[in-house]
Predict the 3D structure of the following.
Amino acid sequence: KLFFTDYGNAAKVERCDMDGMNRTWIVDSKIEQPTALALDLVNKYVYWVDIYLDSVEVVDYQGRKRHTIIKGRQIRHLCGLVVFESYLYTVNSDNLSILRINRYNGTDVQSLARLDNAKEIRVYQKRTQTAVRSHACEVDPHGMPGGCSHICLLSSNYKARTCRCRTGFILGSDGRSCK
């Protein structure tokens, strides 16, 4: 799945398959400007920062179990968000500090460091990389991912795929080659 935020005409948090199909709103009320978004892949939760409401909130992948982790002035100007173990890590763009927030109680907020020009934060951890023995976009014997001549996107699960073309090309009737 692909999870993303939108604060155009109607602010929301959404999800869809990697090929853009099955687009679903998971949060569309009491939300104004959702920006940073982070996933807890193990427990299947979506966290987001709302910079207008000065809040960090969470829901499960279906949009249920919503609650506010933390709200208020101490978390103004947040950009970037990541989950690691019991904490959320984010960047305060006002003073360029890295913040650590306890994601279970929201009361334990610590400034860890200052970094010039920090706008995003990432945690790389082996446990966040799902092990899949095979998937629909594996390179075929001809060197094409999923048998697609340009781009292979996973669909509703790792065994299904959709082929797409680079800009300026059109997908052929075989659903794999680009012209």
